[in-house]
Amino acid sequence: MTDQSQSPASQVPLFEARGLSKSYGHVEALINVDFEVRKNEVVGLLGDNGAGKSTLIKMLSGVVQPDKGQFFRNGTEVDISSRQKSEAAGIQTIYQDIALVRSMSIMRNIFAGREPVNKLGFLKMAEMRETAMGILDEYVRIAGINSPDILVEQLSGGQAQAVAIARAVHFKRDVLLLDEPTSALSVRETEKVLNIVRDLAESGVSCVFVTHNLYHAFRVCDRFAILAHGQNVQSTLKSDTSLNELTDIIMKH
Ligand SMILES: Nc1ncnc2c1ncn2[C@@H]1O[C@H](COP(=O)(O)OP(=O)(O)OP(=O)(O)O)[C@@H](O)[C@H]1O
Ligand SMILES: [Mg+2]
Fold this sequence. Notes:
Blueprint: H1 2-6, E1 15-24, E2 27-37, E3 42-46, H2 53-60, E4 68-73, E5 76-77, H3 83-88, E6 91-95, H4 106-111, H5 125-140, H6 157-170, E7 175-179, H7 187-202, E8 206-210, H8 214-220, E9 223-228, E10 231-237, H9 243-252
Parallel strand pairs: 3-8, 3-9, 6-7, 7-8
Antiparallel strand pairs: 1-2, 1-4, 4-5, 9-10
Helix pairs in contact: 5-6, 6-7
The structure holds adenosine-5'-triphosphate and magnesium ion.
């Protein structure tokens, strides 16, 4: 990953934000923040409480608008001023309280809002079931999910995360934003989510991973972008830093 991010072919980031600012009344949540994601990269977005991480994630998801700033995909400016536009720019967000409908099946959640229909407007159930099963087999591989008809409310937190990730993968988003995806998960589920993030990066889906757990960040991320008080503090490749150094940087701001 490290070599690739420095090769000439990838000089232009897959996705880039420049000069993002956002105030809420007197609170400056973000001040002239730059952020980039490269192909096949897992970026750890780090910083203490209130640093501005979730604000940045929400801007990239199109649900919060910056007061100032621009977004670029492969060097071309893009408008991501709504969730739909952000998704069209290849971005999918997985929140801790993920946007799944708990009373619907895994299959319906994967397709939610984008179900294939036939000419008469009926849902293509067999096609959806087959596709959902394919995604579950290929990407999720989480014990206990062996049918797309299981209701999401019957899943554990980690399994539900995996379904949300499967949805992003199916619709070919290539930038996946995860805001504290593991904060309420068991050790075993956390392991699975961390492994999925790593697998996704290898298979071409870049990830932005927000976490307070620096051990997790250090395991899965290729690079770290650190915010403090709404400002960029540092961006450093994993190969150029250490867990101790990251802790120090976050603590001293
Ligand atoms: N909707 C809002 N209205 C008012 N202030 C807000 C709003 N959203 C965020 N803020 C403020 O902006 C600052 C950045 O908040 P943000 O949620 O981005 O931090 P964070 O880095 O995600 O923190 P945490 O690690 O605690 O999740 C904080 O001071 C927060 O109180
Ligand atoms: Mg947050």
